[in-house]
Design goal:
The protein is an alpha/beta fold. Helix content is 34%, strand content 24%. The protein contains nine helices and 17 strands. Nicotinamide-adenine-dinucleotide binds next to helix 1.
Length: 343
């Protein structure tokens, strides 16, 4: 920990939309972190952000000299907000520099990548987090409580969908080599996670997968629409969908004696919840700030890492099973899945 100002010094890798629109503003408001460094390939952004956030020249890195962050005692942790396929390289370089790491979701574009990231962080004895903001969000914490404590009886079924109309501008999300996949890896991952943390267990199989790669009325490199089902223990089924062609944003959990519905469920703002008793009265918060305070709790106070690399790995294991099932048309079992660690 940075003893001078008692806040953890953080360096942002990648100054794209999510970094600059959500993460940096949340870090600036955070009680536990201070933006001390930036890593960018753009001279203009380096100038702009160092002036705006008062970052000294010595804490500005580019993608080539990033490894020299190792000796920089201002930086305790590095946040990677780059295209999905680049997460692995920068997580491993950050770990080798002895820094804790947060990487954006999806953690990687393959199970193997996630495993290598976990190993590198373990070997370097640093914490690894995935930017799973909803693990710290009050509506979702209510849904987790309902499912995991069985307060309204056992869960009967879950429905989840997240989709938006993607822009036709050649962005990396539409390039398989940079994104790893399409709507499923980008937004379907929230639906996978939500079902897992509501049930408090991992699925045992995926089935009934339908995958369409038509986006903008032409074939795309990545999936545009995916629907799938996840089988959990005790006959709980999650009916899920993700899309780059239409809007949807919902989580519905039906228990024996009640339900919880959140819609919008996964976006940064405006979450709305209801149960059989009426509107859910929980606070709407700055999700990214809550995520950062949760991360600080792990680093400073040793609290269980709710959004660990293992969590990221499990979601990518499920994503690979869904793609496999889409290809073969068969139900795919998940007996080799990593043990569930979320509490
Ligand atoms: P973006 O395109 O706005 O930003 C990407 C950044 O990476 C830019 O600064 C770009 O210059 C840099 N970059 C470096 N090499 C690149 C290359 N070869 N091609 C393209 N860009 C390159 O993307 P974003 O929306 O900020 O997403 C970044 C990451 O954050 C992704 O992994 C995404 O899934 C994740 N994300 C998470 C959330 C969330 O709610 N947790 C929300 C949005 C994005």
């Amino acid at each position: 920990m940075n003893k001078k100002n008692k806040k953890l010094g953080i360096a942002m890798v990648g100054l794209g939309k999510y970094s600059t629109g959500q993460l940096i503003p949340a870090i600036v408001q955070s009680e536990s972190f201070s933006l001390k460094g930036i890593v960018t390939g753009s001279e203009e952004k380096a100038q702009e952000y160092s002036t705006k956030y008062d970052i000294p020249e010595k804490n500005i890195y580019n993608y080539d000299n990033f490894d020299s962050i190792k000796g920089n005692t201002d930086i305790d942790i590095v946040y990677i907000a780059l295209p999905n396929a680049m997460h692995e390289e920068y997580v491993i370089r950050a770990a080798m520099a002895g820094k804790h790491v947060i990487t954006e979701k999806p953690m990687g574009t393959s199970v193997k990548q996630c495993e290598r990231m976990i190993k590198a962080c373990k070997d370097a004895n640093v914490e690894l987090f995935v930017g799973y903001r909803l693990h710290f969000e009050p509506h979702h914490l209510e849904a987790m409580k309902l499912g995991q404590t069985k307060a309204k009886g056992p869960i009967k079924k879950i429905e989840g969908s997240f989709g938006f109309k993607i822009e036709d501008n050649g962005q990396w999300r539409l390039q398989k080599d940079l994104a790893g996949g399409g709507a499923l890896v980008d937004v379907g991952i929230y639906v996978i996670q939500a079902a897992r943390y509501v049930v408090g267990k991992n699925p045992i199989a995926v089935r009934n997968v339908k995958l369409e790669n038509t986006i903008f009325e032409r074939p795309s490199e990545v999936d545009g629409d995916v629907t799938w089902e996840m089988e959990f223990p005790d006959n709980v089924i999650a009916y899920c969908s993700s899309s780059y062609t239409k809007e949807s944003d919902k989580l519905y959990v039906e228990a024996e004696k009640g339900y919880i519905e959140i819609s919008p469920a996964y976006y940064y703002y405006g979450l709305q919840g209801s149960t059989e008793q009426g509107n859910l009265k929980v606070e709407r918060i700055n999700q990214q700030k809550a995520q950062m305070e949760g991360i600080a709790d792990t680093i400073i106070n040793g609290i269980h890492n709710r959004a660990s690399g293992i969590e990221g790995l499990i979601d990518v294991q499920i994503i690979e099973a869904i793609y496999k099932s889409a290809k073969t048309g068969e139900r795919v079992t998940l007996e080799k899945i990593q043990e569930y660690t979320h509490v």
